[in-house]
């Protein structure tokens, strides 16, 4: 009886350190943020923190910009990452070199990426200098990359973000491809399938777990983008949700509780989007089976 009892509790003992870690460093701060988001500076219950956010003209802009960024960036990055993963998975000569080069942007912190492209896209930055020396533009024809309208600026941010994030998604998809059954793929060709048919009917369905992992992680991180935008355009030039959290916390005096309320709203949005994606992708159904 004692031996059976001890074996029963071994799994719980093993996960106890992780559970304690999440309670102390994740659950407790989350509960504290929710609690204080409903208090004013005198610790009196109020909804003014949330009302301040909903009345702010930048809130609607932040939601729209974030939604556009998530849809376009995730779609673009997934397609490019999948293409690169399929190419590198062919294991041709030089594939490892291509993989090593492709992984370089992923190793750079967001601060470095923001600084690099902020200086690059300036009127007299290195991008215009490179184009000039290549003979693509003239001395007087320098491109004002940062002078576009809001949508053009958002598209520029998406391209910069894609440059850094595509390797992350590619690694997940490449790992999934390397774990697929080669026999099933070869059988598809034997029975007359074209490359596109085998990809659509066999490879992608078997790759679905990796695709789901890559997409859900990318969606969550895309909703929380802000640092690159601030480093290139500054605050509220292209408002997004998490940038507004930082703006209320660091740029405005006396709005710390509003920043907490904003962070709660962002957390709720991330949770809702994640659940919807997992439901649509069929992840819950697979777990039930």
Shape: flat
Q: Main beta sheet: strand number and arrangement?
A: none
Q: Which consecutive residue ranges, at least 5 long each, have pLDDT under 50? A: none
> What is the beta-strand fraction?
under 5%
The Rg value, from CA coordinates, equals 24 Å
**What structural category do the secondary elements indicate?**
mainly alpha
Q: What letter string, H or E per element, gives the SSE order? A: HHHHHHHHHHHHHHH
Intertermini distance:
33 Å
Average of the residue pLDDT scores: 89
> Can you give the helix content as a percent range?
over 70%
**DSSP strand count:** 0
- Number of continuous helical runs: 15
Give me a quick take on this structure.
The chain has 289 residues and is mostly helical. It is 77% helix and 0% strand. It has helices spanning 2-37, 48-55, 57-88, 95-102, 104-107, 110-120, 126-133, 150-178, 182-190, 195-206, 208-223, 227-233, 241-251, 256-281, 283-288.
What does this structure look like?
Helices cover 77% and strands 0% of the residues. The two termini are 33 Å apart. The protein contains 15 helices and no strands. The protein is flat. The chain is mostly helical and 289 residues long.
Question: Can you tag this structure with a few keywords?
Answer:
289 residues; mainly alpha; 77% helix
């Amino acid at each position: 009886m004692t031996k059976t009892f001890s074996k029963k509790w071994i799994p719980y003992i093993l996960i106890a350190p992780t559970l304690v870690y999440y309670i102390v460093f994740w659950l407790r701060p989350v509960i504290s943020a929710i609690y204080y988001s409903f208090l004013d500076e005198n610790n009196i219950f109020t909804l003014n923190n949330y009302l301040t956010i909903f009345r702010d003209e930048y809130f609607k802009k932040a939601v729209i910009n974030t939604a556009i960024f998530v849809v376009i960036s995730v779609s673009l990055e997934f397609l490019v990452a999948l293409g690169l993963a399929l190419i590198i998975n062919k294991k041709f000569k030089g594939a490892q070199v291509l993989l090593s080069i492709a992984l370089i942007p992923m190793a750079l912190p967001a601060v470095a990426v923001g600084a690099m492209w902020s200086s690059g896209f300036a009127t007299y930055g290195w991008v215009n200098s490179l184009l000039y020396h290549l003979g693509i533009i003239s001395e007087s024809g320098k491109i004002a990359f940062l002078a576009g309208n809001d949508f053009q600026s958002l598209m520029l941010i998406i391209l910069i973000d894609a440059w850094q994030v595509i390797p992350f998604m590619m690694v997940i998809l490449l790992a999934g491809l390397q774990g697929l059954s080669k026999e099933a793929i070869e059988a598809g060709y034997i029975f007359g399938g074209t490359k596109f048919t085998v990809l659509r009917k066999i490879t992608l369905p078997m790759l679905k777990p990796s695709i789901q992992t890559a997409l859900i992680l990318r969606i969550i991180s895309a909703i929380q983008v802000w640092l690159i935008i601030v480093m290139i355009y500054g605050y509220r030039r292209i408002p997004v949700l998490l940038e507004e959290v930082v703006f209320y916390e660091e740029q405005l005096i006396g709005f710390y509780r509003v920043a907490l309320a904003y962070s709660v709203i962002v957390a709720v949005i991330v949770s809702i989007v994640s659940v919807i994606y997992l439901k649509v992708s069929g992840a819950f159904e697979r777990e039930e089976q």
